[in-house]
Design brief:
Blueprint lengths: L1 E3 L13 H9 L3 H9 L6 H9 L3 H19 L5 H17 L5 H9 L4 E5 L8 E9 L3 E9 L8 E2 L29 H4 L3 H13 L15 H10 L13 E5 L3 E2 L2 E11 L5 E4 L2 E14 L2 E13 L6 E10 L2 E11 L4 E11 L10 H12 L6 E5 L10 E9 L5 E6 L2 E6 L5 E5 L7 E8 L5 E9 L7 E6 L8 E10 L6 E8 L2 E6 L5 E6 L6 E9 L7 E7 L13 E9 L2 E2 L8 E5 L2 E3 L3 E4 L5 E8 L8 H15 L5 E7 L3 E8 L2 H9 L9 H10 L7 E8 L10 H11 L3 E6 L6 H14 L3 E4 L5 H12 L3 E5 L12 E7 L3 E3 L3 E2 L2
Parallel strand pairs: 34-35, 34-37, 37-38, 38-39
Antiparallel strand pairs: 1-11, 2-3, 3-4, 4-5, 6-8, 7-8, 8-12, 9-10, 10-11, 10-13, 13-14, 15-16, 16-19, 17-18, 17-20, 20-21, 22-23, 23-26, 24-25, 24-27, 27-28, 29-30, 29-40, 29-42, 31-32, 31-41, 33-40, 35-36, 41-43
Helix pairs in contact: 3-9, 5-6, 11-12, 11-16, 13-14, 14-15
């Protein structure tokens, strides 16, 4: 099994000694020595050591590009603007100050140009002085003034460094000794010196900060995990690592347009590998870092992880890597790693990529479009929405395209979530829609109008519907305001892995028309011509399963389509605690629900013991989890083993620089154990992305739900902000159980944010110092999940869909209540 975005060990390397740095710098090419000299004021020690550990010039070139990319990200800029601005500043420093290493030069390069450089002309009292004013100086605050002076008998300005505790008069070195100087300080700087007010502010500020003035020259802080990432993304030998006897071969089996498939096959002796385990599952994992070089430049680089079942008996495990390359000469370099033992192999192979003339296959999008076009080859008026390319997860601006066929269509209305938003009266019938920054379930509907603006047909798709594996949908027709006679009905069915479909029943109103057992799920249905309202209903059932049937309904021959209002049942997963322990056996009458302070009728009341559990687990596998990962795997395996019962299901997400699905929804504990065995620590922490991505998997899932989030630190790499993740958690209404490992009490901001995820969703936060405590925490979570109530109510009619956040309170006579804090209608 091939898994993209693998995991690697991520311990910080031991810093190089001064001697090691000197020796490695001496071996660099001139351009790379010059790079280190140019960026000396802004490069961190860890960055410098990382650069010096690289083995080839192409790797160093990649580091330089990444060096400036990190600074663009930190500044919120793009297109190498950080690099361009820095080198413009560097030229200014060389022309104006002479030496890059001067105090003024270094400050200018670290913080950029000041808002003003003011010469203080007061020769009667002082040596030459210059004050730099910064509107904001990081670490020192707003409106900060920095004083430079030329020491007596010298020519270069220096930063004034007062040491009140070490010298009798810290101002003495500022006092001039020329013939014009009086040798004393003025009694009133403001009156006796030009720009004396600015000088006075600089003296006061720098005296107050005398103990930390050297921090002005600290390079901007860079995420160390980001810096170390390049060491794991290029082919570098690990000193002292055991060697693997891997073999590499190359062939060119196929072409793809102007490129050729260069197929690299690596055979790794199984006897040299070690397995990792979680529960009863064992796996062999092999991690690959690869480089393709052309003309002594890094053409491309890639990383993969391959997982094999632990019970394989093959003597050699095969790794096959396909790279599409244009015909030319290249060099392939690979690093093969067994993370369980630390053994590795470095392989290198010349590639002479030939031209292979093979017609490329059409893309999936092109094929899907062709199917739609073929279906529309009829005279009946039809309109179809072209599914977006990334139909599973859609955010941001997307263009909604339609295909129109047949006569009589004069305009197309576009609807989003039951509200009409636009009408197009001429081709092309397209519309740009903003789906927001985080994935939310949305319904896109198009309605075709005739010359009298009457609806005649239409189509509808749902996007961002989650990953629940059991669904049925009536794909066509979706909108049928005027339909009669023989009608082709098409169904789409999604069946969970390891499950078997029992059948799909199709109904016209309450009359069963057909039962289908195998795809394609297509049936002709005769719609009466009496113009009465009716409906098509599809019901899908699994064999030998505790999973309830799923269904979909489409209304036929409805009155003119109008703006709809969703009747949204708000569900409240609720736990009642007394003396810190869950309370069972309460009746519906024991609860009172308030919506914005107003009592509402409880329309749904269930005890969770009668409902299946749907559990997600998101595990931090960033580099800092390295020493804890083995115990975390075993504790997670024990949790799933003890919690999951027949009818329950779970999924596993791992997150580092980004979240990855390690195991999608499954009812099999063995699947989850195998997924846990594959976890490897690596890189940064995209915590907020992991929250959003994990909660997305719950869309459309019924019954009792919970997300368990295991992490050891702050977010360092997410695309989503904390506020966006919180809003998404509020909308998802899934209890989040936070398990913080090794997060110190002084990390107040980290704990506050994690606590809020739990508090807003009715979950709990736990903080532990050792992963051995996970078993106890998991037992508490299991006990709570099996002791919850699900309360439901319908908002008042005046509460409109798409409105603002509404606060909800659940009360009981005796006990503490935990539930979600509110909802978005």
């Amino acid at each position: 099994m091939l898994v993209a975005a693998p995991t690697f060990a991520a311990d910080d390397p031991t810093p190089l000694t001064r001697r090691e740095r000197k020796d490695r710098i001496a071996k660099l090419a001139e351009k790379h020595r010059q790079f280190l000299m140019d960026v000396d004021p802004i490069i961190t020690d860890s960055e410098r050591d990382t650069f010096l550990r690289l083995e080839t010039d192409p790797q160093r070139d990649v580091f330089i590009d990444d060096f400036w990319r990190r600074r663009d990200v930190a500044r919120g800029t793009t297109n190498n603007s950080a690099r361009a601005e820095y080198f413009a500043n560097l030229e200014f420093v060389k022309d104006t100050f002479g030496q890059v290493s001067s105090d003024r030069g270094r400050l200018y390069l670290v913080h950029g140009p000041p808002a003003a450089m003011v010469d203080i002309k007061c020769e009667k009292y002082f040596v030459p002085l210059q004050v730099w004013h910064y509107d904001f100086l990081p670490g020192f605050g707003h409106n900060y003034n920095v004083l430079f002076y030329i020491p007596r008998n010298q020519r270069e300005y220096r930063l004034w460094r007062p040491y009140p505790n070490r010298v009798e008069n810290p101002y003495l070195e500022l006092i001039g000794n020329s013939i014009e100087s009086s040798g004393r300080l003025p009694q009133n700087l403001w009156m006796e010196c030009e720009n004396g007010d600015l000088l006075s502010k600089a003296l006061f500020q720098m005296m107050a900060d005398w103990m930390r003035l050297e921090r002005m020259y600290d390079p901007p802080q860079i995420n160390r995990e980001e810096v170390n990432r390049i060491l794991r993304s290029v082919v570098l030998a690990t000193p002292g690592a055991p060697k693997l006897a891997a073999e590499l071969s190359v062939k060119y089996p196929a072409g793809d347009g102007s490129k050729t498939d260069a197929q690299l096959t690596v055979l790794v002796p199984r006897a040299q590998l070690k397995t990792t385990s979680a529960g009863n599952a064992t796996v062999y994992s092999i991690e690959v870092v690869g480089e393709i070089l052309r003309d002594e430049k890094l053409w491309e680089k890639y990383r993969y992880r391959f997982d094999f079942p632990g019970d394989l008996k093959d003597e050699k495990l095969p790794i096959v890597i396909d790279r599409l390359l244009r015909p030319a000469a290249y060099v392939a370099r690979l690093k093969i790693i067994d993370p369980a033992s630390g053994a590795e192999a470095i392989l290198e192979q010349s590639l002479e990529v030939p031209e292979v003339a093979v017609t490329a296959k059409p893309s999936e999008e092109t094929a899907a479009l062709s199917v739609i076009q073929e279906e529309l080859q009829s005279t009946r008026a039809r309109v179809r929405i072209v599914p977006p390319n990334n139909i599973d997860v859609i955010t941001g601006y997307q263009t909604i395209q339609t295909i129109v066929n047949g006569a009589g269509i004069k305009a197309i209305e576009f609807w989003l979530d039951g509200k009409k938003i636009a009408t197009r009266r001429a081709p092309p019938y397209t519309l740009d829609l903003d789906f927001g920054t985080v994935p939310r379930g949305r319904r896109i509907r198009v309605v075709a109008l005739d010359s009298h603006d009457q609806p005649i047909t239409g189509d509808e798709i749902a996007v961002n519907t989650g990953t629940d594996p059991f669904r049925v949908r009536i794909a066509s027709p979706r909108i049928a305001p005027k339909l009669s006679g023989p009608t082709r009905v098409e169904l789409e069915v999604r069946v969970p892995e390891s499950k078997e479909l029992s059948g799909v029943e199709l109904y016209w109103n309450e009359t069963r028309i057909a039962t289908m057992y195998d795809p394609p799920f297509v049936q002709m249905v005769t719609i009466p011509s009496d113009d009465n309202v009716g409906y098509l209903r599809a019901v899908a059932t699994l064999k030998d399963s505790d999973v309830d049937p799923v269904e979909d309904v489409v209304m036929i021959n409805t009155p003119d389509y109008m703006e709809t209002i969703d009747v949204h049942l708000v569900e409240l997963p609720t736990t009642v605690l007394r003396d810190g322990k869950p309370v069972n056996g309460l009746e519906e009458s024991a609860f009172k629900v308030l919506d914005e302070g107003q009592a509402v009728k409880i329309s749904k009341f269930e005890h969770v013991k009668n409902l299946p559990l749907s559990i997600g687990m998101a595990v931090d596998q960033s580099g800092s989890m390295d020493t804890r990962m083995a115990t975390a795997r075993e504790a997670g395996a024990a949790f799933f083993q003890n919690v999951l019962r027949k009818g329950d299901k779970a999924f596993l997400i791992a997150f580092d620089t980004q979240p990855h699905v390690v195991q999608k929804w499954s009812t099999e504990v063995s699947d989850l154990h195998s997924a846990l065995a594959k976890l490897r620590p690596e890189e940064s922490t995209a915590l907020y992305d992991a929250v959003v991505y994990s909660l997305y998997n719950f869309l459309g899932v019924k019954g009792q739900k919970a997300l368990v989030l295991v992490t050891d630190g702050r977010d360092t790499a997410s695309k989503f902000t904390f506020e966006q993740a919180i809003e998404y958690a509020q909308r998802a209404a899934v209890p989040i159980y936070i398990i913080g490992i090794g997060i110190r009490g002084v990390e107040v901001d980290v704990r506050l944010k994690l606590n809020r995820f739990a508090a807003e969703t009715g979950g709990t936060s736990y903080y532990i110092d050792n992963v051995t405590e996970l078993s106890r925490i998991y037992a508490d979570i299991e006990n709570e999940l099996r002791s919850q109530y699900v309360l439901g109510f319908y908002p008042a009619p005046e509460v409109k869909t798409g409105g603002k956040w509404r606060e909800v309170t659940v009360q009981v006579a005796d006990g503490k209540v935990k539930t979600i804090r509110g909802y978005y209608p």
